[in-house]
Fold this sequence. Notes:
By secondary structure, the protein is an alpha/beta fold. Helix content is about 45%, strand content about 15%.
Amino acid sequence: MLPTIAITGASGHYGQLATDRLIAQGYAKHLILVTRTPAKLADRAHVGCAVRAGNFDHPESLKYAFDGADKLLLISGTRVGARIRQHEAAIHAAVRSGVRHIVYTSFLNVSPENPAIVTEDHRETERIIQETGLDYTFLRDAHYADAMILNAGPGFIASGRWLTSTAGGREAMVWREDCVDSAVAVLTTPGHENQVYEITGPNRENFAEVAEMLSEVSGHPVQLEETTDDGMYAHFDAMGIPRKPVDDLSVAGIPWNSEDMVSFEQAIRGGHLDICTGDVEKLTGRPARSVRAMIEANRDLLRAVKPL
Ligand SMILES: NC(=O)c1ccc[n+]([C@@H]2O[C@H](COP(=O)([O-])OP(=O)(O)OC[C@H]3O[C@@H](n4cnc5c(N)ncnc54)[C@H](OP(=O)(O)O)[C@@H]3O)[C@@H](O)[C@H]2O)c1
């Protein structure tokens, strides 16, 4: 008998990929998909998934959202700084509904020494989940390579310039699909109760090395330029990126905010994200894919960018 799995953020990039993979494994009628706008997931309802309304900002809307679920894939929300309260509402609803196991998408290195501002939300959410006494699995995802290569990459190529304050610091960026595949493995195979996994790519790289790969594959030179954190803020301000997160606001197609981005640069510079593990392979049975593989898989898209 398959367990019933509830998923928050089911309409997002991560949630849709996870849902597709679970449907492909025969879970359609064992999925409860939670969204603020159920109409968005009409296609999933059509194949037998239960689609329910739920809003992290309105705890009463979550009260029955997870009823009947054995496991909850709690995909972290998008509003940095508001997520402790938001996730807490979902976690309490999961307890009320009799969920036995919460799988949470956290972030790499949630220690208080890590200056990346996202870490507080994740650290506190992990704590709240542990306090429930339910089984848990924390998937501490590294930076998505998708964000840097597919979202930001075309801008670096067009301008020929990649501004950073990371000072050569390294991280092992990971494919979002590898994060999703790891989560699906945790949800569908036994033995992951009360485990923490660090979901990283296979190589520790600095941005100069990634800029070189982008230049080589796209055929357009991308020059890495070091600046200060203030220089990064000025750069993001000029692009119209808000300092703090704003719900559902994208600038240049990316839902980013500069406090988040600058604190990531600090974290990389300080070596707080310099972590590389074999957990993707441990969970999925195949090695994590590399940043170079993502650049090469998107060669045509990157070559098509017109330098300004
Ligand atoms: N490690 C990394 O580098 C990295 C990078 C990007 C993101 N992330 C994490 O991964 C998560 C998922 O990313 P994604 O790309 O899938 O995000 P996304 O495509 O922007 O989707 C966000 C999801 O959050 C849901 N949501 C937003 N506000 C909500 C609320 N108040 N109540 C209930 N649901 C709400 C949305 O659902 P509805 O609109 O349907 O309600 C949507 O499904 C992010 O939130 C972030 O924590 C990590």
